[in-house]
Design a protein that fits this description.
This protein has helices spanning 16-23, 27-36, 54-64, and strands at 13-14, 42-43, 50-53. The protein is an alpha+beta fold.
Length: 68
């Protein structure tokens, strides 16, 4: 996971591979994050692909780097 905030469009839609690239992690890590509820994906009607928003990617990143 990167230390710098991911550069994504908060309103944009990203598949698992793109989310993994934005967070600098493996696609399998994104799948694990989804299973753990760290990031939410939905099924897109067109093409039946799993997608998430840029806002959810940023939220996932912030959850990993919350200063306490």
């Amino acid at each position: 996971m990167i230390i710098d905030k991911p550069i994504v469009n908060p309103d944009g839609l990203y598949n698992q591979k793109q989310a993994a690239k934005a967070l600098h992690v493996d696609r399998h890590t994104i799948a694990r994050y989804e299973a753990d509820g760290v990031i939410k994906f939905r099924i897109r009607k067109a093409g039946k692909a799993k997608v998430t928003t840029g806002a959810d990617i940023i939220k996932c990143w912030q959850g990993m780097y919350t200063i306490k």
